[in-house]
User: What shape does this take?
Amino acid sequence: MTATAAITQTLAAGVVNEVDAATVHGWLAAEDIVLVDVRETAEYEQEHIPGAVLCPLSMFEPALFPTFPDKQLVLHCAVGKRSAAAAKQLLDAGHRIVTNMQGGLQAWKQSGLPTELSSGAAVDTGDLPFLALTGEEAQAPAPHEKPGVHPGRILENEFLAPLGITQAALSDAAGISASTVSDIVGGKSAVSAETAIRLARHLCTTEEFWMRLQATHDLAVARQAIGAEVDRSVKPRRGSPCSQF
Assistant: This one.
């Protein structure tokens, strides 16, 4: 049975449908669906489902989201929470039927289904606004890839604000002190490993996502502060490939 037939038979319009990863895999293989990954760009680059297109929740525009007359729309995230929220937004914006993949990428991997790495980036693809291409077609850098951007800005602009979460609510839900949340959002404190684990659990990301953002920020700050001096004072090891430069 095709995705369209299965969903139409079991679901009333205006309700978020929930299906398991194995079912989505079959539909994707049969080219019955458009699978949309609503995680953020760094998460997608780290690992994603082959054939999934990227539409980060931070860039989500339900009113402008395209419709697919011949295919059903299936959303997924890391564990299913962000994609369920995005699906509800699409229904509220007038999309008739939207499906959420239960358990997200975590369930997909637990089912032994394939994933891949890519240099995918969020770009405008013309007829499909806010969806992403992969490989050579995807060249635009994501906003949080700009050097020196503190992870606190990503937390505020790509999670708290779009999801309507206050700093106080995040503090209570993730078990992070209010002062720590405030300092991170304000760029005054770094994201520790413990904080990364707590943020990842509550916001349905990976721990590595937050640690990578912090490391990228720290390296950019350090390069700005001492990069020129290090280039002058520290010489590459003799005989190494970079000793030629």
Remarks:
- Confidence is low (pLDDT under 50) at residues 119-147.
- The chain has two domains: 3-139, 146-234.
- DSSP finds ten helices and seven strands in the chain.
- The longest strand covers residues 33-37.
